[in-house]
Amino acid sequence: MSTVVINVDDRSSAKLFLDLAKKMHLKARILTEGQKESLALRSIMEERAGETTLPVQTALDILRKVK
Predict the structure, then answer these.
(1) Do residues 5 and 19 both lie within one domain?
(2) Alpha carbon 36 to chain centroid distance?
């Protein structure tokens, strides 16, 4: 399975993509800003799971790059 992320500026554009996905029998949903941030943080945590420690400043720098 693959995932495609499309950022849109307004609700009507989002609805257009959701309708298109529905017609193609694909699963689609709108993510809130909080959900997007949680996914990004989870991804970072998984990438660094093997590391024992991470300095606070390094963690903050990584999080700033995600936004």
Answers:
(1) yes
(2) 4
pLDDT (tens digit, 9 = 90+) per residue, 39-53?
888 888 888 888 778
As given in the structure block, the two tokens for residue 29 are 């949903």
Instruction: Tokens 């720098």: give the residue.
Output: 61
Tokens standing for residue 54 = 């991470």
Q: Name the pTM for this structure.
A: 0.56
Amino acid (one-letter) located at 38: S
| 8-state DSSP, 10 | S
Give the span between the Cα atoms of 9 and 27, in whole angstroms: 21
Q: Do 37 and 61 fall into the same domain?
A: yes
d(C-alpha 34, C-alpha 39), whole Å: 9
Query: What is the dihedral angle through the alpha carbons of 50, 43, 59, 67, rounded to the nearest 10 degrees?
Result: 170
**Which domain range does residue 66 map to?**
31-67
